[in-house]
Amino acid sequence: MIKGVLFDLDDTLYDSSSFADRARREAIKMMIDAGLKATEEEAYNVLQRIIKQKGSNYNKHFDDLVKAIMGHYEPKIITMGIITYHNVKFALLRPYPDTIKTLIALKKMGLKLGVITDGITIKQWEKLIRLGIVDFFDEVITSEEFGLGKPNKEFFEYGIKKMDLNPDEAVYVGDRVDKDIIPANDVGMHAVRILKGKYKNLDGNCAYEVNNLFEVVDIIKKLKKS
């Protein structure tokens, strides 16, 4: 019997990839206006290398960008990048069109809902609050809180325990095969891959794949009958 559904956050409940990319590009434009000595494409390529090397949760991307291009610290340019990035990001932050109706439908089915996400706890909570969906969730479990992130099985086991569920009572929905589907299956959860975001075209062997989040409702109805 299915009693709960846990979700990844980024690129599962909202379009993380495209909005973050656009915010970074707008930030670079303003940094160039403030004195950054590079073309937009040069600066963007350097920034992408920094993000790949340091990770998306690193909090000094723009500091490193300015130092890499100009060789020294320029607080005005860095601050212009940070402010522009956050202003654009929050202006564009919206759940997928089918996210809210899916969460409403699952709540009406009497299911517990949770989030298991990599990231800094405050940042992930901020996203949920700004998306307007925080009140749907019984638990929000982050890698910072636990001390390990995806694809560690222990992280998923911790999330299931915090939701007071057995693995076979839980469905996990995420966009990545390596970090979401495989570890969720390994701990005994039912895993659903949503084909959204930058990893949607990567191959993966998944029992359940959906293009629209609301399709998860039908999958859970079938699982509850089985």
From TrEMBL:
Family membership: Belongs to the HAD-like hydrolase superfamily.
UniProt superkingdom: Archaea
Species this chain originates from: Methanothermococcus okinawensis (strain DSM 14208 / JCM 11175 / IH1)
Name of the protein described by the UniProt record: Glyceraldehyde 3-phosphate phosphatase
A Pfam match: Hydrolase
Taxonomic lineage of the native organism: Archaea, Methanobacteriati, Methanobacteriota, Methanomada group, Methanococci
GO biological process, one term: small molecule metabolic process
Cofactor: Mg(2+)
GO MF assignments: metal ion binding; phosphatase activity
Keywords, ordered alphabetically: Hydrolase, Magnesium, Metal-binding
Entry-linked InterPro entries: HAD-like_hydrolase, HAD-like_sf, HAD-SF_hydro_IA, HAD-SF_hydro_IA_CTE7, HAD_sf
Function comment: Catalyzes the dephosphorylation of D,L-glyceraldehyde 3-phosphate in vitro.
